[in-house]
Amino acid sequence: MIEDTPTDDDAVATGADETTLDPWGSSTVDDYRSLFAEFGIESFDEVLPEVPDPHYLMRRGVIFGHRDYRRVAQAMRDGDPFAVLSGFMPTGDPHIGHKLVFDEIIWHQEQGGDAYALIADLEAHSARGLSWAEIDEHARDYLLSLLALGFDPEEGDLYRQSTNRELQDLAFELGSNARFAEFESIYGFDGETSVSHMQSVVTQIADILYPQLAEPKPTVVPVGPDQDPHMRLARDVAARTRFFKTSEAYASVEFDGDERPLVADAYANRDEYADDPETPRCVEAAAWLKSAYGQTGARDRAVTKLENAGKEPLRPRTRFFARQATDEAFAALVEAVEGDKRVYDGHVDAFDLSLDEADDLAQRVEMETGGFGFVAPSSLYHRFMTGLTGGKMSSSVPASHISLLDDPEDGYDKVKSAATGGRDTAAEQRELGGKADECPVYELYAYLLAGDDDEFATEVYDECVGGERLCGDCKKQAATLMREFLKDHQEKRAEVKDLLADLDMDVETERTGDGLVPAEE
Ligand code: TRP
Ligand code: SF4
After folding, report:
1. Helix (H, G, I), strand (E, B), or coil: what is residue 467?
2. Which of 138, 195, 278, 418 is a good FRET partner for 109, with 20 to 30 A between their CA atoms?
C-alpha cells in the first residue's frame, strides 16, 4: 500500500491546498485526499471490499478514487452486463503511465465487461494541433501495446473518434444538452477557444456514453484525475437526457432533499401524534415536527408545506417527474405504473412501487418511447506516476518516463539513473531506512515491476524502509526487470501486428486540414 503523505486536515477542509484539474494543462496532485473534499471523488478503499478479486493496482492504492464504482462492482458480482471504456490521445509514444489504463481496461474485460478503447484523434488534432500523419503513427503504437498487453479485439471494440459515425451522431445529440457557459466554467474556455476544440469535448462526452448506445449498463471509465472534469460533465449531460426523474415523496406537495428526511421521520413516528395512525394528517405532522426538532430553515419550510396541505393524509409514495418526456412518453409511463397511482400535471405518484422498481420502470418506458435510458457513467482514478527524474512524468521529457517503445537497454539505463528516496550515505540508509513512499523506483515496483506479486512489492517496501535495501542494488534489480518487461512487451507487439491488420478500423487516414489548427491563447 502506498502511504499518503500526511497533511493538515484543516488545510484540506478549507481548500487551502488548491488543486486544479485541467485536462489540457499540467495537472499535478500533491494531496490526493484533497480531491475527495474538493471535487467529490470518493475514496477507492471504501469500495475495495465489494470488488471480487481486485486488480493489484486496486489493492496497492494506485487506483485511489472513483465515482459510482459500486454499481459496476455490483454488476460484476451479479454477472450482469457492464462496460469499460477509456480513450487515448495519440500525441506521443505510449508509456508506462498509459500501461496503467491499458491494464485497467483489460482487467475489466477479463472480468466479463464489454471493453472499449478509443483513439482520441479529433482531440489530438484540435486541442494539440497534431497532424493526421503523426496521429496515425501514434494511434498504431497505442493499439499495438494494448493488444500486446492482452486486450481481446474479438470481444472488445476499438475505434477512432473521427471515423465513428454513430459516435458523431451521439455527440451531436448530447451537444443539445451542453451549454457554452458550462464550458467556460468547467474548462475555462472563452471567446478564443476554437469550435473544434469544443466539439472534441462533446465527442469525449459521447465516448463515455457510447457503450450504452445499444443498451444502458453500468460503465466504468478508468482515467487520471485530470480527466475528472469530463466525467462530471458526462454525468450531468447523461442525467439531462433522462425522461423522468424519480424521488420519494410523502404528500402531493414536493419536499426538497433537506426537508424529506424530516418528513420521513414524522411519518415513521405517526403513532405518537396521529388521531388515526392509518391516516396521519399533514397538519398533525407539522405540529409534531415543531416540537420534535429544533428550529432550522429546512424544518420551517417543511412545517409550512405540511400546514398548507392541511388535512391531506401523509402517505409515502414514489414520484415520477416528467423532465424531457414528451406527452406520449408521459402517457406511456402513467399507463405502465401498476397498482395505486395518482396522476398530476407533469408528475405521477405510485403507491405500490419501491424507488428501485420505479427507476427500472422509468428507464424501460424511456427506451420504449425513443430515449437512451443512460445509467450515470462511473469512473476510476489512478495516481499519476512520478517522473524518473523526480518531478512530473512527462511525455515531452524522455528521461522522466519510459516509453513502451524504448530500447530495453535504454529502459535499463533510465532506471539505473533514476532519482530515489534514498539517504545521502549507505550508513545513513542502514540506520534510517529509505523513503520508499517518495521513491520513483519503488513506484516502478508497485505500479508495474512486481506485477500481481504483492509479497514481492511488500518485501521491497519493508526492506527499503527497514534499511536493509540499498539504492544501488535496488535500482539494478528494477532496471533488470524493466529491461525484461520491455523486451517481452516488444516481442508481443510484433506478434500482434497481424491482429491490428485484421481490425476493421482505419489506422490510416487520408485527411486534409493539417496546419489549419491555430495555436490557442
Ligand atoms: N481526453 C483524454 C486524454 O487526454 C482522451 C479521451 C478521449 C478519453 N475520449 C475519452 C478518456 C473517453 C476517457 C474516456 O487522454
Ligand atoms: Fe527507492 Fe530502492 Fe532506494 Fe528504497 S532502496 S529508496 S525503494 S531505490
Report:
1. coil
2. 138
Q: Which ligand is nearest to the CA of 123?
A: 1
Distance, CA of 189 to CA of 459 (rounded, Å): 48
What the block records as the C-alpha cell of 186 is 468547467
E strands within 233-322?
244-249, 317-322
pLDDT for position 518: 65
| Residue 503 pLDDT exceeds 90 | no
- Measured from the Cα of 120, ligand 1's closest atom is 7
Ligand that comes closest to the CA of residue 231? 1
**What is the rounded end-to-end Cα distance, in angstroms, of the chain?**
41
**How many Cβ atoms are within 10 Å of 330's Cβ, its own excluded?**
22
pLDDT band at 521 (very low <50, low <70, confident <90, very high): very low
390 CA from centroid of ligand 2 (Å): 13
User: Which cell goes with 325?
Assistant: 418526456
Matching residue, cell 495519440: 90
Q: 260 by DSSP, 3-state: which?
A: helix
What CA–CA distance (Å, rounded) separates 404 from 158?
Answer: 20
Atom 4 of ligand 1, residue of closest alpha carbon: 89
Mutation test of ligand 2: which of 475, 476, 480, 482 has the most ligand atoms closer than 8 Å to its C-beta? 475
Half-sphere exposure of 115 (CA within 13 A, CB side): 23
Residues in the chain: 521
Are 246 and 318 contacting, i.e. CB atoms less than 8 angstroms apart? yes
Judge whether residue 183 has pLDDT over 90.
yes
Cα–Cα nearest to 390, from 445, 441, 460: 441
Q: Which pLDDT does position 12 carry in this prediction?
A: 36
How far apart are the C-alpha atoms of 417 and 428, rounded to whole Å? 20
Contact 65, 201 (CB under 8 A): no
Which pLDDT band holds residue 520 (cuts at 50, 70, 90)? low
Do residues 135 and 104 make contact, with C-beta atoms less than 8 angstroms apart? no
At 198, the pLDDT band (50, 70, 90 cuts) reads: very high
Protein residue with least CA distance to atom 5, ligand 2: 471
Sign of CA dihedral 447, 453, 456, 461: positive
Report the candidate in 135, 203, 140 with the shortest Cα–Cα distance to residue 168. Answer: 203
Indicate whether 15 pLDDT > 70.
no
Q: pLDDT by residue (tens digit) across 279-318?
A: 999 999 999 999 999 999 999 999 999 999 999 999 999 9
Q: Which among 174, 204, 221, 235 is the best mutation to test ligand 1's pocket, defined by most ligand atoms within 8 Å of the CB?
A: 204
Report pLDDT digits (tens) over 397-438. 888 999 999 999 999 999 999 999 999 999 999 999 999 999
104 lines ligand 1 (CB under 6 A): no
Contact (CB, 8 A) for 310 and 282: yes
How would residue 18 be classed by pLDDT, with cut points 50, 70 and 90? low
